[in-house]
Task: inverse folding
């Protein structure tokens, strides 16, 4: 099978490339940078996986137009090429943030989208364009809305938590109790492979997450366990933490309001729909197993 992947040089792209290559598929990495990429699109590919995009900038230094130019407009051009090509499957990597920046309860695919950032809105507009087009006979189209993805080579808030625990610094946000869905790269690879290879799965929009959400305190506990260190949790009053975070917005401290939100908010995502489509009761790897694998990779 010939598979074209955009954004193949990124964290997710590298893992998907390796996953499919190990299964003897032919992979083409298509860069969407510059103006010449259209002529390089292989219309004879069997599958197009669109990963390339402008990630959410938590420092808020990116202009709104960047998100729409990259996440919406490039997606529109690529999708139009797919519709005219011989490819049978198109997978667009959107985000749960295209639906909601905050979640009360559990996020399902039936939720009414209401993104609150240019990132989320640009992803939603790309989704809307894809969904507005009739699906030609013989083609299948999937919109994937993953939550926070992690795995070996991952950078971000997990790496921040790891460094805090590694240095023996007590976790200062233990007063915040939350439940947050995460997604291991191995479970993501499993789902994408099923969507690509199982022709019984019809076009659809899917949330993707591990089976069980974890609290940040639990994640810190897992990191401590992997590092064989004593668990250190500080239950500092929330009010004091919020004051420090607001100061961080101005003084560029390690903790700011955006990072505090990411580390302490609850964001639970249902994966029931995609599991039903893939005909599985549970994903191959538990949330704890996947997280331990990611944390162990930080030690190398």
Result:
């Amino acid at each position: 099978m010939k598979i074209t992947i955009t954004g193949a040089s990124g964290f997710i792209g590298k893992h998907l490339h390796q996953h499919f290559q190990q299964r003897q598929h032919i992979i083409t990495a298509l860069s969407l940078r510059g103006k010449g990429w259209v002529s390089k699109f292989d219309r004879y590919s069997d599958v197009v996986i669109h990963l390339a995009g402008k990630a959410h900038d938590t420092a808020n230094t990116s202009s709104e137009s960047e998100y729409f130019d990259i996440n919406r407009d490039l997606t529109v051009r690529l999708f139009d090429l797919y519709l005219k090509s011989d490819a049978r499957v198109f997978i667009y990597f959107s985000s749960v943030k295209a639906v909601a920046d905050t979640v009360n309860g559990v996020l399902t695919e039936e939720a009414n989208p209401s993104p609150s950032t240019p990132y989320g809105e640009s992803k939603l507009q790309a989704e809307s364009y894809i969904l507005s087009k009739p699906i030609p006979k013989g083609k299948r189209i999937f919109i994937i809305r993953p939550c926070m993805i992690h795995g070996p080579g991952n950078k971000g808030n997990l790496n921040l938590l790891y460094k805090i625990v590694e240095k023996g610094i007590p976790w200062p946000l233990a007063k915040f109790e939350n439940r947050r869905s995460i997604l291991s790269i191995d479970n993501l690879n499993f789902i994408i492979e099923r969507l690509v290879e199982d022709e019984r799965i019809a076009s659809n929009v899917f949330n993707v997450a591990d089976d069980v959400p974890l609290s940040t305190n639990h994640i810190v506990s897992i990191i401590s366990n992997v590092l064989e260190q004593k668990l250190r949790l500080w239950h500092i009053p929330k009010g004091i933490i919020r004051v420090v975070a607001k100061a961080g917005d101005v003084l560029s401290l390690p903790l700011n309001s955006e990072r505090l939100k990411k580390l302490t908010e609850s964001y639970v995502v249902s994966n029931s729909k995609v599991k039903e489509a893939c005909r599985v009761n549970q994903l191959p790897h538990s949330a704890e197993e996947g997280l331990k694998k990611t944390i162990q990779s930080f030690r190398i």
